[in-house]
Amino acid sequence: MRDALLATVTEEHATLEAFASLLMYEEKALAAVSPLETLPGIVEKKTELTDKLASLEKTRDSQLRQMGMPAGWKGMELAIADDARLAKQWQMLQAVVQRARRANATNGLMIRIRMNYNQSALAILRGATSRNAASVYGPDGRMAAV
Question: Which domain of life is it from (predicted)?
């Protein structure tokens, strides 16, 4: 059973490495002038990897219960106490978790900045339309009436 748990944690680590790499790719896309070409594919892959990570976590929790240990962090702490291979793999997984959290926070900040910029630009355009109706084209492409 410990070998199955080790295999699951190893697969979790590999999947999370792929997810962290994807977050770096997402960061580059978010910094691009026009990220719309690449972001949909990134979001799709992120969703796929997130689903896989959730499934692996359920599998790991089930394996821990079968070994008579609690699910989650507490169970893993008990499981790694007397298994050096599992402890090393768990430590590597936790390092990737931290890296992915930082990357995800950075991307979230970049998204908020871009959204704030877009909202400010729209507010300026809306303000210009209401103040200078005569000098701005309307939604139909014609000069707005005075």
Answer: Bacteria
Q: How much of the chain exceeds pLDDT 70, in percent?
A: 87
Q: Among 60, 64, 62, 49, which residue's Cα sits nearest to residue 14?
A: 49
Separation CA 65–CA 72 (nearest Å): 10
Burial (CB count within 10 angstroms: exposed 0-12, middle 13-18, buried 19+), residue 73: exposed
Q: What is the pLDDT of residue 46?
A: 96
For the chain, the structural domain boundaries read 2-108
State the residue for tokens 């796929």.
Answer: 48
2-108 CATH choice from 1.10.1740, 1.10.4100, 1.10.287, 1.20.58:
1.20.58
CB 38 within 8 A of CB 29: yes
Sign, Cα dihedral of 43, 97, 93, 8: negative
